[in-house]
Specification:
4 copies of one chain form a homotetramer. With 427 residues, chain A is an alpha/beta fold. The first copy, chain A, contains 15 helices and 13 strands. The first copy, chain A, has a single domain, classed as Alpha-Beta Barrel (TIM Barrel). Chain A has a 6-stranded parallel sheet with strand order 6-7-9-11-12-13. A 3-stranded parallel sheet of chain A has the order 1-4-5, covered by helices on one side. The first copy, chain A, is globular, with a radius of gyration of 22 Å. At the A-D interface, helix 6, helix 7, helix 8, helix 9 and helix 11 of A face helix 6, helix 7, helix 8, helix 9 and helix 11 of D.
């Protein structure tokens, strides 16, 4: 279900004069403030976020799942949906596969198909939190941390297989998220479980091609509700440091205890040169996996403020980060939801880019707390949507992606094509 | 899979002399403290907790589910499992059905079958948080609160049908838990949704037989992650007060924001005569649905302390409460898990019963904070397990239920009988 | 330390052409969207927030307090500071007194002095959370809930005295915030404490003049760290309902457990016609008392969205609300901090006023979750600062209040006048 | 205000026969379970907890403070109070000084005085979270992290002075708790603040005598309510690792976000050989500083379970830990409060010591979650108070310390001696 370039151009043409006026006013304002607008646009255009292959279908909770209709039935349809999102937004130029849900039958063909949509393959993700029907040993009591060496070996082998698949598609990194942990006090020897996890991770790390990176996620709880082996960034960092130079911590915004200062974690990891990437989403309670920017947009801006400033003053040579959306689309059309997330991300990026870093440094040096807040608020309160739209437009995307998506009745066509009660593989 | 009385007696006989010594020592100690041991035992014996019909199978999370094997395949097998638990513990004399998962084909036969296990039917539970395959309208966007009157009518009709089924089995109450809410800011007009919910609840309330009670649960989040229509006890209480005298608030221990003082909520509701019942479980993070007493046993004791004291000084004529376990058995054998929960509940009850209420009142009157704590700790730190065991033994239960359960390899026999990969209906 | 009208006009003149251009562009945009700009400006101008008398000095924590210098030494200087803030912002036209910190020696003179600054007297606040040196009985173990009837009588008498003082100054409401609660399990009989509190509140309520309102605050914890007698809105609402028609719940944004959906509480209280007023501040962890809008500005907008929509569709005749800032200025100059808070409040109000309520209703009726979010985001992301500034300018305030405040070196002059180590009475 | 050995013996004699019976029954039971009772008693006797010098007076909150009366007026009286507690409990054999509140005028005399009470000097604590009247530069905007090198130098010099004082008293470690952080987004450059903090800590570390240890505390918030420079164990661990082998993380139970799994942090730090010590207290909401074991006694047990098991299998040679109570006594008599804390600590220790580690290991190896819980519960539910009392009695302490304390009307005598409105130095 592709959208044609011309369709986007046509749709844009209706809004072009309004947009131009808004953009010029903003351009004028920013230029007056000494900001290099063209450079900002390039930075925004360059900012690409991976879409995970599992995000194109309806998500669910333990209480049930409601179909959205027209969900992709296979990897090609998933790539096709990402291609559509990318065509509209020009900001989703990669896909992140989840194995075993998305094993390509023919890597070369899959690669070519993706390329035809302008899509490359980002980090690959392993899955040792569920049992597959053909699996010899169960992950019920853990995988890389399991007390049984055979289970650990199976989980390590799976990760190696995922690396192999990733390599065949041009991926350059593996993301490991572990559900390993315990549901009740007493169940696990924390120290031994952590030591076993480290040993397993090292084996995976050593198997990676030399230009690959390992991303280690952390999460305080869920699906285990007493402990998680990698409960926080500190634990992930310990493991990454032990694994080696190409192992990094990956931050998922929803994987924190209430009230955590995530932006400070981001900053600390950049200080160590150990921040690998991001899983974007938003949440009010736990790992709610809501649309990015739908609950705490100011926090998202503060995080981007650390990212922008930190990577600009990157004394520890932190490598470029991997960006991915990791949300669950329980009620909204996943494609619309992802478009909203992409918009929120680029908006936060743009807000961070227009922060007056010189004045901010000055205010900080003088402990002028009032002024530091004024500077952040000035950036955050500026309506930068015309800048985002201009960047998208120049890249060939739609000024108003959701309007185009709805205008072409794409979901309806997908339902027609794929059926009403499809379930995306893996969900 | 029944266990025979004689088997329990045989098992007990091995431990009897040890138990007797321990019990007598405790009896001596309690009597010295002026406590009426025989009366305590009777109160403990009388304390019966309902087992929900969905609790006999393995639970799961949105990330997956691991089979336990030998799970009940139908209502009879569920009743049979409850009967087994009751035989062992003599504290689970009722079952709470969930409709439509457990519609009896023949109510009279089901009643008779349950009776043969010593089991009666507690509150019935409706389900408007999932769509059933034969359902005309979807609950994706709510049920009793839905913007569409037809969906509300369907949900009300379902609740009425549940009442009818309950009546045919001798139930005397309906528990309504609503997943209704919103996933994102803006989605719902809070006021209007609440007003519609009240209207729907009134219709259900008015349909109930005159000796029935309506229990209204509250929950701050999940499966909706921005808002829940009945988010807290205050909202439930408003609705119950508007519905009428036989509408009450039901407290589920896991349905609270972090750090909530639940015991105070319990106390306030008793003060208003509006506490209807309890769903027991334990949690560290959210609605984790862990074994009762596995995470915060002291809080459980404090809650029972309010219940015991409040019902003893029941100025508002709060009716007797409905007790149910509502946990999810993701890793443990559900039967073992429930036995552990029942033990924790009775232990907390016993601890509350031995609190020196006279001295506590005195300490409170004098604002003697140290002494108030000493009094609670004295009750809590006393090992009352011999008292619990004696109560169980006298009722015909096992001194050590899990030992008996394992000794007879009951799970293995259930697996043999029912199969390894059964999924309990509804899960 | 007053600022003269002409000084503000002079300061504005420098920024006027830039402001006019920005305002006209915004005006154009809003008008195109069908919004009545002049009406919006009037609504914003009319929105006045009370400044509490204790907010003009440096706040502190249990770990210490750092002076800001030039803090007001008496009630007149406090009124003078509020007058200054009001002159600059035209949005702080009232002061809320805290008794016994601010007992006027001569009410008529105080009234006249306030009037000369354009300031009226908002709700009066009683204090039964500290002992005063001349106090007969201690509030160590509570006040309105105390076990000792004499302490309760003293606390009630104090509240009556506060009402008398308020009456002499033209106040029309009393705000009661109770620290009453318990530090340890067992200390308090929750039910009895609540019953005693109700009895005390009724006596205070009945003493109020017939055109007064009683505002009952709630708070889950601090300074008591186990329980607070009025722990949540539900408890406050119970008490207000029992007291009578002119008793209302007051919401302080910082008085909630982690992750509470405050906007829904606001909505529910308006539904009942029982929302009395607001204490504005912001927080990340607990009752942090930070500058309004400094941590969760989107939540503030969502709250205003409920307030605006709720009061427009006010079926229960909720009376107009009392607005107050209740923050602590530990590091920032209090005057600058309050100016930032006032700006954030009016910005959130303006954002709520430009929400397209017609389209929002439509989206809700159709359960179009994506569109509901788009509508809110469109309002929130629009830069409405020119509108706020225009409203302020028209009222005679400064386009850039902090710039004017700093430009005139007012803090330095206050320090010269009042000294460097003053401590505002009461702090 | 010393209590004489004979007075304790006399008091014990009244309870001795009852105690002996209870102890023998427990001894019998434990011996039957294969536990070495005499060895347990020795381990309990050896477990000594430091009392901080600031803990002997009434604490307070930002809302006020209520006197307890008879509070120590100087260091000698503080030592005397600790001596009293130690005489009664035989478990508080050391004091932890806070500088500048407790600078000894004559170290030799202070040492001798302490010795006469059986008290030694534990870790010394520096204070850079408050300004002292004679201080050149302010810590308002931080100390070791300050942007101004002169402030950092002052704070480092203070820490060195604290080490000097400690050395003169026989202390062997310095505990650094920093309030450094920020109250608002933007105020601080996180990375630079952390780098400056590390630099300052290294200077302090290098100044320490070669047999000293440096303990680095962490805390997520308060008194700064947006960020703390050392926000979590991960950050503390980074700093400690960079400082050197004798730098360790110190865990204060109250310094965590809601729901944190503290026992797992403890375990991880032991795994790294980097756990330095503990500050005991309890809390329901934040850093509530309540009596140890008063809110979450089971969590305390779980923590001790990690400590006992971890130090027994100490592959990383984690050194012996420093134990201290760090609570605030807002309502209770501090001496009674500390006695209750000491009791709770030893009880949790004893519970951990009787955990059947062999069976637990077995259950874990088999992923027998039910049994792992049974094993922990069996230890936790056993009433080990007779064991604690026996250990105390054998060391010369009171069977019932609070009863003796009250029986001798010690607080009343202290009030007589010291006055009713004393304020302990530093508070």
């Amino acid at each position: 279900m592709a959208i044609k370039e011309q369709q986007i151009l046509d749709a844009n043409s209706e809004h072009l004069s309004g947009h131009s006026a808004e953009f010029q006013a903003l351009q004028h304002k920013l230029t007056n403030n000494g900001l290099p607008v063209e450079e900002l646009i390039e930075q925004i255009q360059a900012f690409q976020v991976a879409i995970p292959s599992w995000a194109l279908g309806a998500g669910g909770t333990r209480f049930g799942r409601f179909s959205i209709g027209g969900e992709p039935r296979n990897l090609e349809e998933k790539i096709s949906d990402v291609g559509l999102i990318h065509a509209l937004t020009q900001s989703a130029g990669s896909i992140s596969l989840h194995i075993p849900w998305d094993i390509p039958e023919n890597a070369a063909a899959t690669l070519a198909f993706a390329k035809s949509h302008g899509i490359v393959f980002d980090a690959v993700n392993s899955n040792t939190f569920q049992d597959q029907s053909d699996q010899a040993l169960s992950y019920k009591f853990g995988s890389l941390c399991h007390t049984d060496a055979d289970v650990r070996a199976q989980a390590v082998a799976h990760n190696k297989a995922v690396i192999d698949i990733g390599e065949s598609l041009g991926s350059k990194s593996l993301t490991v998220w572990l559900a390993d942990g315990s549901a009740f006090p007493g169940q696990l020897n924390f120290r031994e479980a952590l030591a076993r996890t480290l040993e397993s991770l090292k084996e995976i790390y050593n198997y990676m091609p030399s230009d690959w990176k390992l991303f280690i996620e952390y999460k305080p709880y869920e699906p285990n509700f007493y402990s998680t082996v990698i409960q926080d960034w500190g634990t992930s960092h310990l493991l990454a440091a032990e694994c080696g130079d190409r192992a990094y911590t990956l931050v998922d915004l929803g994987h924190h205890l209430p009230n955590t200062n995530i932006e400070q974690i981001v900053s600390t990891l950049i200080w160590r040169g150990k921040l690998g990437g991001f899983h974007f989403n938003d949440s009010k309670y736990g790992d709610d996996d809501l649309t990015v920017g739908s609950i705490k947009p100011y926090q998202l801006f503060l995080i981007f403020n650390e990212l922008v400033e930190g990577m600009k003053n990157n004394a520890s040579n932190n490598p470029p980060l991997a960006w991915m959306i990791d949300a669950s689309h329980n009620l909204k059309d996943p494609i619309e939801d992802l478009i909203q997330s992409l918009e929120a991300i680029r908006l936060a990026l743009a807000q961070a880019l227009v922060v007056d870093q010189v004045k901010l440094k000055q205010a900080r040096d003088q402990n002028d707390v009032t002024m530091a807040q004024e500077i952040l608020h000035d950036a955050y309160r500026t309506d930068l949507r015309p800048l985002i739209r201009e960047a998208r437009r120049r890249s060939g995307g739609a000024l108003h992606p959701i309007t185009v998506y709805r205008g072409h009745a794409i979901r309806e066509k997908l339902i027609e094509q794929r059926g009403l009660n499809t379930v995306a593989t893996g969900l």
